[in-house]
Amino acid sequence: MLVRWLLLLLWALSAQADFFQFDSISNASTYYFNYIYCNIWEGECQPNQDDATQQVPSKDLWSGFPQDYISLLHQWYCSLGQCCESGDCRITNNITGLSRDLQTKLHGQHLVQSVVLKAIQGFIHNPESNKPLTLSFHGWSGTGKNFVARIIADNIYRDGVKSECVRLFIAPFHFPHARLVDTYKGQLREAIRDMVLRCPQTLFIFDEAEKLHPGLIDAIKPYMDHYDNVDGVNYRRAIFLFLSNIGGATINDVALDFWHSGQNREDIGMEDLEHRLRAETMESQVPPCQAVCTGCLCSTRSGDRRGYAG
């Protein structure tokens, strides 16, 4: 009975809006009507109603109608999971959730909890960023690189790592043969372009990045630099994560030195790691980074801003 009442209300609102030529109200009511209709009679659903990039109409469009009814309708509709503030329902950018998860789910990585949060938050809150955000996570296997990448994805995308805005590349799996590097370069460029065209805030994750062929790194670099566009596409809202095993021995050596001197692990700062890690990273051909994270001990630089966390 409630559904029938809602359908009748939406039909009436749409008809009334058309009568008075209130186009914006008509579009809003039609959007709600089609969504409810499709969930009840899927076989007769009107096309183009599953576009996640379509912006859900605001309650302001309904200001000419009784607000109690409209508020109830809007709350019910949003409970179905179709409302979003950003205009792209695939993207949540939940900084509060990211902060909470880094603090409660990640253990033994004191630098990442502030540095990664600062980097992501600063990038998301700066729509005029002059380049994509690039983070490089370093450390031995099992130190949390993939785990942190998943936490990031879970909090900035509705569907986490399964989102159509997230693309994972595993170097030895996707690019196993050095003789095919030219083919891989073309495939990689096309994949990056297609992803950003579909979702400007795409998250690219390159696992085992130390195994990327130098030619592939050269192919990626233009997308991470200060360009308004590359071949007509703006990549400055994209995020690149590089996960690498390089630096694990260096990190452990520093941690052991602190232990021998009677200092706590939490006393380790980026100044204790940065120079040695940067030298090792440059030797290994890992992409030049705006963040170096050692599973995860991090320094970060995004655009013209630079910050460290201890």
UniProtKB/TrEMBL annotation:
- Which domain of life does the protein's organism represent? Eukaryota
Which of UniProt's keywords are assigned here? Signal
Q: Which GO terms describe its molecular function?
A: ATP binding; ATP hydrolysis activity
Query: Would you indicate the residue range of the signal peptide?
Result: 1-17
- Gene Ontology CC entries for this record: endoplasmic reticulum lumen; nuclear envelope
Q: Which family does it belong to?
A: Belongs to the ClpA/ClpB family. Torsin subfamily.
Q: What is the protein named?
A: Torsin-3A isoform X2
What lineage is this protein's organism placed in?
Answer: Eukaryota, Metazoa, Chordata, Craniata, Vertebrata
